[in-house]
Amino acid sequence: MVTYRIDTTTLREVPLDVTATWEHVELLERRGVDGDGERVVWLRILGALASAEQLAWSDVARHGGPASLEHVPRPGGHDVPAAAWRPLLRLAQVLHWRRRLDAADVVVDAVRRAAQAAIVRHDVDEATRRDCSAVLAFADQGQGKVRYDAGRCVEAVHLFASALERRARDGAPADQIESSRIALAAASSRAASTGAARSGAEHDAWQAAARV
After folding, report:
1. What is the pTM of this model?
2. Residue 15 bridge partners (DSSP)
């Protein structure tokens, strides 16, 4: 079974065996469309980002979602169908890794709005509520990584904390909870060091001004 580790500094997945992972991608491709969602993930992790994005858009459209960024619903528009939520989140991760941070936000926000609308419906059943909650945790986690890479670590801390709280409350799989813990620790550390550096710079500036 192919797997990966999470780099605790970059928060990116790193394949443990690159050759075996490429072989797994080839197996998924032979499975056809049923393997496309997982194949997007592994192509991204392997760094084949152009191929991952092209496949992700196809997978989103196949699940009833938008076929391009221009067609992703904005606030006030219609909600994307539930079947497209996870394909869209996988796409957002690819866009993030391609440094298209604003585009990744647009995609995640569309999923977040749809899931938030669905979870508060008066007739929502427990299975749907849990699914919406899981999707919202993935949205927080993914958007937290976007903020982390953008240097907006305080925002990242809040998003990772939200994802961790939701996953712990919902009894999410252990690897998802651990991923949120790792991300929260990294963002908290970076936010603290950035804050200390800023405070130090402000103190130095104050002392320089006082000597004038």
Report:
1. 0.91
2. 4
| pLDDT, mean of each 10-residue run, the chain (212 residues) | 96 98 98 98 98 98 98 95 98 98 98 97 96 98 98 98 98 98 98 71 43 44
Q: What is the 3-state secondary structure (H, E, C) of the chain?
A: CCCEEECCCCCCEEECCHHHHHHHHHHHHHHHHHHHHHHHHHHHHHCCHHHHHHHHHHHHHHCCCCCCHHHCCCCCCCCCCHHHHHHHHHHHHHHHHCCCHHHHHHHHHHHHHHHHHHHCCCCCCHHHHHHHHHHHHHHHHHHHHHHHHCCCHHHHHHHHHHHHHHHHHHCCCHHHHHHHHHHHHHHHHHHHHHHHHHHHHHHHHHHHHHHC
Nearest alpha carbon to residue 139 among 120, 115, 119:
115
